[in-house]
Design brief:
Oligomer: single chain
Number of helices: 4
Helix content: under 10%
Distance between the termini: 57 Å
Number of strands: 28
Radius of gyration: 26 Å
Number of domains: 2
Structural class: mainly beta
Largest sheet: 12 strands, mixed
Shape: elongated
């Protein structure tokens, strides 16, 4: 393979909107940041090319290295995310490619051909292909990558492969720049790079503060938080709270240690109005988008994601969250110590229509079924969700790390914000 020599430079960050480095570094400074696990950026260019070939983003303290490949028009066309899960090697966690229809197509054109491969430890993964982007159908298959293809040996600081070498017919010879990068830098980057962070509860706790005004990206206006509705109490004599799909015959997805006791539940309620074209009038609506189990009465000092067996925060992409999974739009709070008995009774009540196996509580509170283990005095409170899939569970903690409350979002509120 032949071609121009590739030059590289280092920086503290990268402004995607401007296509420019932020906080230029000398090579020795970048090497020191690499050794310390601090974020830094490597920019690759070839002679006579105003846009980069690719940009590598590294933050070992976040177990992360990522590469963005650019085309001759300055558009991102390929993205690789690597995760440091084991000493000395990186998982090829995520790989996405875009195929643009022509030079005039914008970056991330919604009708661009898009292929994404996600890989997980243990041979799991999926391939998603949208030949016409968001405008067409999507196919999902299982990746054929071997165990060796899933992993990359962690390169030394000076020994990284050039992902775009084949794309541009380059010989892969890399020459570090002796001085810091001198390309334009925006004083306040419009889209600065940060290492990926797992999702958080955001403004979800505000759903339990009456009078709070909210907005979402699906254009609902005049949204205001109403007084939460009281739900049934939940008895957890084992001190192990389960949050899961009660139809799942396996172990609960998530368990949380709490003091043995009986705890109240609350249902968040929001009200909003809109002009309904079908009815030709202004319509007032209420929704119950979240549930809260109160474990204590003290203030919440911090929030954390509830994790289950096999959940690894290092695998989450930016903004992603774990939760309990459901195929039946159903979730529950339950005593994990009595889970087999409670889950069996729930199935009898719901599937077999056994009226003696459970108590129907669907009275506008959001809960619809309770089952009881008479021997232990443990409860299961089942509730409906707006869809199948994964529903995150958030723990409100006090200053000493004790659980104050548990919140589950059951309805979709895209980009929820307090206004």
């Amino acid at each position: 393979m032949s071609g121009p020599v590739v030059e590289l430079g280092h920086a503290e960050g990268w402004d995607f909107a401007a296509g420019a480095a932020v906080g230029a570094l000398r090579p020795q400074e970048a090497r020191a940041r690499d050794a310390a696990g601090l974020p830094y950026v490597v920019v690759y260019r070839s002679a006579g090319r105003s846009v980069p070939l690719e940009v590598r983003l590294v933050s070992w303290r976040d177990h992360y290295a990522g590469v963005w490949v650019y085309d001759e028009h300055g558009r991102r066309v390929e993205h690789l995310e690597l995760r440091l899960l084991e000493e000395g090697r990186l998982l090829r966690r995520y790989h996405e490619r875009w195929g643009y229809s022509g030079p005039e197509a914008p970056e991330f054109d919604r009708v661009a051909d898009r292929m994404a491969v996600e890989l997980f430890p243990g041979g799991r993964g999926r391939v998603s292909h949208r030949p016409r982007g968001d405008a067409g159908p999507r196919t999902v298959t299982v990746p054929s990558a071997s165990e060796e293809e899933r992993w990359l040996r962690r390169p030394d600081f000076d020994d990284w492969p050039l992902l775009s070498a084949d794309r541009w017919g380059l010989d892969g010879t890399v020459r570090p720049t002796a001085a810091p990068l001198t390309e334009p830098v925006s004083a306040a980057p419009a889209e600065p790079w940060l290492p990926p962070r797992p999702g958080g509860p955001g403004d979800l706790p505000a759903l339990f503060v009456p009078g709070t005004r909210l907005t979402t990206s699906d254009h609902r206006e005049n949204m205001v938080v109403l007084e939460p509705k009281d739900g049934p109490r939940l008895r957890v004599p084992s001190g192990r709270l389960a949050v899961a799909d009660p139809l799942d015959t396996g172990r609960p997805d998530i368990t949380v240690e709490v003091p043995p006791g009986s705890y109240p539940t609350e249902v968040a309620t929001i009200g909003f109005g809109y002009h309904c074209e079908f009815e030709g009038a202004w319509v007032e609506r209420t929704e119950t988008p979240a549930l809260r189990l109160r474990v204590g009465d003290g203030p919440v000092d911090s929030w954390t994601m509830a994790l289950g067996e096999g959940h690894d925060l290092r695998l989450l992409r930016d903004g992603e969250a774990y939760g309990f999974s459901t195929d039946g739009a159903t979730g529950c709070f339950a005593d994990a110590g009595a889970w087999p008995v409670l889950q069996k009774r729930f199935r009898r009540a719901l599937v077999d229509r056994d009226d003696e196996a459970g108590e129907d509580l669907d009275s506008g509170s959001g809960f619809f079924l309770r089952t009881v283990d008479e021997e232990s005095g443990a409860d299961l409170l089942a509730f409906a969700t707006d869809s199948d899939g994964t529903h995150p569970v958030w723990l409100g903690l006090d200053g000493s790390g004790g659980v104050v409350c548990v919140i589950v979002q059951v309805d979709w509120l895209p980009h929820l914000k307090v206004v």
